Amino acid sequence: MRTQRAARAPIVRAVVVVTLLLHGCGYTLVGRGKSTLPDHITSIAIPLFTNQTLEPELEKDITSAVRQQFIRDGRLKVVDKARATAVMEGRLENYVLDPLAFDRSDRVTQYRVVIGVHVTVRDLVKNKVLLDQDFSAREEFEVTAAIGSREAAKVTSRQVASRELAGQLLNLILEGF
């Protein structure tokens, strides 16, 4: 009995060490660090971005992705403009869908979507512009000959590019990079 216990001791120690290492490794910046914004900025309004492109409903995808990114992060509370200490306004300026690859029948098999947006963030307490900058995100996607494949892939790539843009905005506004 004692030899079995002694034989299991290194295994038990190894399991404990591996468990501690797995729980302790990795890191995250999401919602953890101090924001580079002034201390009085505690909330942000993110009204629906304006859409100057010909791509319908794009403003909804981008605005939703940006709001969700800030909500997930948690350092600024997303509120309506009347209660906000800052406001982020966005203007979608370009949407480009470029073919990248073709099959032997000259059908497009891969596209790249590029979304460009101009964003302004204003401090509503001190009436000061904190950010006034252009951003862009791109995503490539493949399509098959199946009916609906192109449209489904296009929608998915728009969503991915929207999340990428939202991440860029969050990082720049809250982390300064």
Characteristic terms for this protein:
6-stranded mixed β-sheet; Double Stranded RNA Binding Domain; 177 residues; 31% strand; elongated; alpha/beta
Please characterize this protein's 3D structure.
The chain starts with a helix and ends with a helix. It has one domain: Lipoprotein like domain (Double Stranded RNA Binding Domain, 2-Layer Sandwich). It is α/β, with parallel strands linked by helices and 177 residues long. A hairpin with a 4-residue loop joins β5 and β6. 37% of the residues lie in helices and 31% in strands. Strands 1, 2, 3, 4, 5 and 6 form a six-stranded mixed sheet that branches. The relative contact order is 0.16. The protein is elongated, with a radius of gyration of 23 Å. Mean pLDDT is 82; it is low at 12-32.
Topology:
Blueprint: H1 2-24, E1 43-45, E2 50-51, H2 58-73, E3 77-78, E4 86-102, E5 108-123, E6 128-142, H3 149-175
Parallel strand pairs: 1-3, 1-4, 2-4
Antiparallel strand pairs: 4-5, 5-6
